[in-house]
Design brief:
This protein is mainly α. The chain contains 10 helices and no strands. Helix 3 runs antiparallel to helix 4 and helix 8 packs antiparallel against helix 10.
Length: 268
């Protein structure tokens, strides 16, 4: 068991770094046109998640995501009594990052809301709110309702948990070393953003999604926009369920196969 202070610090700092750079990349893409397409934003998310894991995995298990922490409890990799500390650290880290980014970009959003000619119109203001309140669909060329949004978020979390276990569990003798596996976790996030991002803005993380929404409410955003119907299903319930399914698939399907392979005597 980790000490509560150490576990909280690791999850707070790691989630803060992830959200500050990741949501910051979204903000500069939406407000300044600094990035073109989901790959560039996804690359920022992937790199910063890898860096955050390197920076904090000696403090906590470097989850940064309530869906991952809950799945780890189901898989008996994290004691349930430690879960509240992880969730509190993750939520506070995401909220503080979103607040600091609002301090940076709030004046620009306020000018957009006022319809300042040099900056844009109400449509641009509505787009600016998506920095803190992700929408689905995130692309006018797609028909996405609650079901499709939930499937996108849930399936990716299922895949992500399988990848995390595959990269870190000893049952997989082909796993990369501890020095390099955070890079593969980050790359998995990048690929998920490129695939699911046009559907749902790639939340993948209840703390990363809900806490910026709450922060935008504190700053005066319209609650009907911030918490549109289906938000809790797509961005909270679906990732948690997907993560649990991924953990169960690893425990009862893939881990036994890896273990059986590892126990086989080498043939001459």
């Amino acid at each position: 068991m980790n000490s509560p202070a150490r576990a909280f610090s690791g999850e707070f700092l790691g989630t803060f770094l992830m959200c500050f750079f990741g949501i910051g990349a979204v903000a500069t893409a939406v407000l300044a046109g600094a990035h073109t397409g989901p790959f560039q934003v996804g690359a920022v998310w992937g790199i910063t998640i890898a860096i955050a894991i390197y920076a904090t995995r000696n403090l906590s298990c470097a989850h940064f995501n309530p869906a991952v922490s809950i799945a780890m409890c189901v898989a008996k990799r994290l004691p349930w009594k430690e879960l509240p500390i992880y969730l509190i650290g993750q939520c506070l880290g995401a909220f503080v990052a979103a607040f600091i980014l609002w301090l940076y970009f709030g004046p620009t959003v306020a000018a957009l809301q006022a319809g300042t000619p040099d900056l844009g119109d109400q449509a641009t203001y509505a787009a600016a709110l998506t920095v803190w309140a992700e929408p689905y669909p995130n692309n006018g060329h797609l028909v996405i309702d609650v079901l499709q949004g939930a499937l996108g978020e849930g399936i990716f979390l299922c895949i992500l948990l399988i990848i995390i276990f595959s990269m870190t569990e000893d049952a997989n003798v082909g796993k990369p070393g501890d020095v390099i596996f955070p890079l593969f976790i980050g790359l998995t996030i990048t690929m998920g953003i490129c695939t699911v991002g046009p559907m749902t803005d790639a939340g993948f993380n209840p703390a990363r999604d809900i806490m910026p929404r709450i922060m935008s409410l504190v700053m005066g955003a319209d609650p009907s926009v911030v918490f549109a119907p289906g938000v809790w299903v797509v961005y909270v319930i679906a990732p948690i369920v997907g993560g649990i399914v991924g953990a169960l698939l690893w425990m009862f399907w893939l881990e036994p196969l890896h273990a059986n392979k590892a126990s086989e005597a080498p043939s001459n």
